[in-house]
Amino acid sequence: MINDNLEQQAAALFSSLYNRSNTEVRYTDLIQILGGGTPKTGETAYWNGNIAFFTPKDVGTPYTFITEKTITEEGLSHCNSRLYPVNTVFVTARGTVGKVGLSGVPMAMNQSCYALIGKETHQLLVYFYTLKAVDRLKHKASGAVFDAITTRDFDSEQIMKLSDDDAKAFLCVAEPMFQEILNNSIENLRLSTLRDFLLPKLMSGEIDVSSVQL
Hints:
- Helix content is 43%, strand content 19%.
- By secondary structure, it is of the alpha+beta class.
- The chain is globular.
């Protein structure tokens, strides 16, 4: 709930600044679109390693930390994906289309998504600009099947660019908020892992807490 509230506050601030901007630019003037790829699925040496492998089903709110699949260093070297750093913006382009999220840990990505990196634009601005751009694309597809996003779609999309002063004002407020969201998410993950480790031991009697004094 705390994280949702923080994100909603940041989104409201961004929208107010976005709506008063009078500078329209092409989306790809500010943001670089990068791709991904999948290592050969039959090659066991490429899979079940320690590198998170992002696919459309892994989109978090807003951060993703754990992915259904993982790859090895060898797998990374044999696919068309970089190892994308924390705060890379991912958008799902096929399958579940138009979901936008942020990487909470370094991860690779499959070919059904795009990784978005700012061209001298802060990644939080990339995140919120992308939400606006995807929303516009969805509205354009109203009445039609929204089954894919292509690089051409992004290249033709226009967005309103925040002024330098408004961008600084936004980041001054939003950066601490998203850092808290990231920290809270990491702590939630740690506590969930601890719970999943301890609960079976408590249920089986392997750990006895009856003698613990508070």
